[in-house]
Amino acid sequence: MSTELNSQGSSTPSRKRSKWDEDEDPDDLSAPTHIHVPKKRAKHRVPRSQLLEQKSPSLSPSPPPPSRKHSVYVPPRTMHPPIQSSRSVYCYERLNQIEEGSYGVVFRARDKQTGDIVALKKLKLDEEKNGFPITALREVYSLMSCRHENVVRIREVVVGDTLTQVFVVMDFIEHDLKTLLTNMPSPFLQSEIKTLMLQLLSAIHHCHSNWILHRDLKTSNLLMNNRGTIKVADFGLARRYGDPVGVGGMTQLVVTLWYRAPEILMGAKTYSTAVDMWSVGCIFAELLLKEPLFQAKGELELLSMVFKLLGPPTKNSWPEYFDLPNAKTITLPSPQPHAFRSKFPHLSTAGLDLLMSFLAYDPEQRISAEEALQHPYFTSASQESPLPKHPDLFGSFPSAAAGEKRRKAFDSPSAPVRAADYKLLTEYDIP
Ligand SMILES: Nc1ncnc2c1ncn2[C@@H]1O[C@H](COP(=O)(O)OP(=O)(O)OP(=O)(O)O)[C@@H](O)[C@H]1O
Ligand SMILES: [Mg+2]
């Protein structure tokens, strides 16, 4: 093993010029005075590299002649480039911290070999007692199986000196939509919103076609570059769907509160692609309003906001509602019509129809990404003016992530904490 690591000498450069060992004080760019290098770090390393389907050719050194005899039944790793060891984080020079989220800290960094600017997400593994967390595996797996123009590109996974230092390397993207919406002086134009929505739908259609649910779609997880292209990011809560579901059902603690679909709120044991489509509807509304649609403090408040906008659910609009676990604990308001038109007075009829199709109560009736891509809001030139704008015509903005200008975005709830301590709806919200 140590021979193999040494054979990658060129990809594990000197550590003196970097400072990935330090978590604190991201603005202090001086090199650390002492860096502890465990003697046998490779021996204890989890074989994360097996996760990577492929590395960029320039990053995989040509295999050296095996220096150790292997059994014929156990071919050397070098014969299987996809399962070679991960490179070291010291291949990157740390530039600045972009953000600390619930599941990781994200840094901007420079690839020392190519000079490329990248984003490194350091996975939070310090608290882990049960080995490498499934959520991290899912994140890497999902990013790899959903490669698409509008999904952030994963480059590789690199490791530091200790077992808790695992980093996902991605293309660096200048903005996230949440920060951008807060900082931009005027809202996106209709033609721009159409383009952004088409890109988002195209990415989500691709994920769903590859059996991946994102389960945490929100504006802070949508990145946008200075060429008007959206990249869906943060697959930390993603999972495969279509596999048999365990007896306990699927976890209900998914999707950040403001973007969480009503079937999850009502305790549905299984759910599917429609949960992502509800979040897409909330994002569409947020692009139009320039602020989040449902800024609720808890689940009950969120439900009452939903009831107010959509009108309470009925046997027609959501036949299964009355069988859902939490339906008995909720008192529905008296019947009333929806309030979409008054909330979105300037949206075209087709736009309103699309928004209502995303925010349909019944997951079975909710529009799919594939169907939404064909919606007249995007295509009908005669009724729908303006048509989507070409991404090249988007303005560019100072990048907060690159430290060009920084203002804290409005506070929104964080992604749900992982499974275990989930409580029922009624325990959370004391009205
Ligand atoms: N590839 C990237 N390029 C530039 N910035 C990025 C990139 N990936 C993430 N970021 C920034 O870091 C933030 C947090 O990243 P991410 O959502 O992946 O982490 P997280 O810990 O799962 O966050 P949260 O739990 O808050 O959703 C993003 O909102 C974005 O601002
Ligand atoms: Mg995030």
TrEMBL record:
Residues 92-378 form the Protein kinase domain. It comes from the Eukaryota. Pfam families: Pkinase (PF00069). Keywords: ATP-binding, Kinase, Nucleotide-binding, Serine/threonine-protein kinase, Transferase. One of its GO terms (biological process) is regulation of mitotic cell cycle. Residues 36-47 have a biased composition (Basic residues). InterPro entries: CDK, CDK11/PITSLRE_STKc, Kinase-like_dom_sf, Prot_kinase_dom, Ser/Thr_kinase_AS. It catalyses: L-threonyl-[protein] + ATP = O-phospho-L-threonyl-[protein] + ADP + H(+); L-seryl-[protein] + ATP = O-phospho-L-seryl-[protein] + ADP + H(+). GO terms for molecular function: ATP binding; cyclin-dependent protein serine/threonine kinase activity. Its EC number is 2.7.11.22. One of its GO terms (cellular component) is nucleus. Residues 1-80 are annotated as: Disordered. Residues 1-13 have a biased composition (Polar residues). Belongs to the protein kinase superfamily. CMGC Ser/Thr protein kinase family. CDC2/CDKX subfamily. PANTHER family: CELL DIVISION PROTEIN KINASE, CYCLIN-DEPENDENT KINASE 11A-RELATED. This is cyclin-dependent kinase. It comes from Leucocoprinus leucothites.
